């Protein structure tokens, strides 16, 4: 087999280079592009890219030898727009974000139910006073998206004694879920949910799935998380729901526009928590492992993990 | 069988009365004492007390018919001091605190690792900026006390991919723990721990178990929780460890003196979180269920759940 050239296009290039060289992958030459100029100079040599989607996209037209792009992120939607190339294999990273997303969701959820910020303020004032709270046990958790991330969050909810419902395109049963519904049943399921978590990808079907009508079906005490993609939520409708008491609280890690513009009214909403799209992070050790496994399959002509269907969009 | 009189001595009397009357327990007359005066007037009639330990203690000398006291709390140490009565059956509530303690520990732990307070501050300033963080996965959790609470916390740690070590008097294997050590091995285990959780009861052996020497064995980055009893920690030594970087952070729900006095230097320590002894709460539904089960055993002459050994102290 002839040699293949891999070009690294990420903020963790040095780390990836070290991990991949240590793996002694056969027939693989590893190049790094740490700047835009370097990327432009080397892109024509690359058969394989290991890249952040936003760094790769403007270079694809020049990537004349490209056969495979391994995204270092889960979200690859910017590579799927109309007019984008589709004549290569695109794989994303899957299976490593579930534990991190669970940490994020349950960290923020328990910080709210256990009123951690309130007690911090009380401590500043040296006040010893307890406030009532409720356990997660017996509460209902609704998860939109029942893939590996949704399943991990479901299992964490189950561990904390929650009833876990899911919504997916197929409505297929999944481990960790008491019941999974199809998207058209969403309005019937929403009124039961104490906690709602969207891990949905960005597709035509998920765009503004959470609009004013959806929020009108939520419990006024419900806590809404978006850790999937910003496009699933109409943020104007969300803000209105939070302001008018149709929804209790929201925790958002993803937005329609990122970074969230400084003049967004979301920043100042008291019953809303904003984090800068970091609920899960692609730790280089995990991503490198995925690449190594996929490379072996690639040279053997086997199907790779995380292969994206350009039509479905995930 | 002759009738027995139960006297309720708690802040949730009305709630307990309703729940127990609805259970139609045979041969049981239920009285309430909502004030000190009422308690003094009725204590002589009571065969059974369902009580907060601190409310019951000053009345025990007058409780001439007492045969059984069901504590509504887990902690009964104030009923076990020298000179206290021992001629009755004392039971506490067990098994209901594990899930609540897990919520507290992991809520505070994830709030720290995911820097929730920091992002809240950033949101106020409309700043979109991510900071590195580490997953709980692969970290080592050390739990002091391997009873039902410790086991639940262990299982939660295991769910989040942590390695879970335990320390107990016996060192016996317990579900959820990778390995359990005896107390004399503590100094050898401490240097491995990223997170330390004490759920120890107050006994002679646990008094100031965490002193300056112990803290000198901790990782400088370690996070220390006390959700057991305040007496297990020498708070002066803890404060010194936090100030001199021998310990990274502490989260305390229990103290040697409660409420924590307003002049305690603990209040102002930045790498210390204080909560007012509410990591777990005796929800009346749960406690009533325990009483009902125990009452059936009591009238059948069977051993009751949560029976305290006056010599061991738990």
From TrEMBL, chains A, B:
GO terms (molecular function) for this protein are: NAD binding; oxidoreductase activity
Tell me what this protein is called: D-2-hydroxyacid dehydrogenase
Q: Which residues form a coiled coil?
A: none
Superkingdom classification of source: Bacteria
Question: Which Gene3D superfamilies does this UniProt record tie to the protein?
Answer: NAD(P)-binding Rossmann-like Domain
InterPro entries in alphabetical order = D-isomer_DH_NAD-bd, NAD(P)-bd_dom_sf
> Which residues are in the D-isomer specific 2-hydroxyacid dehydrogenase NAD-binding domain?
107-278
Membrane spanning segments where?
Answer: none
UniProtKB keywords: NAD, Oxidoreductase
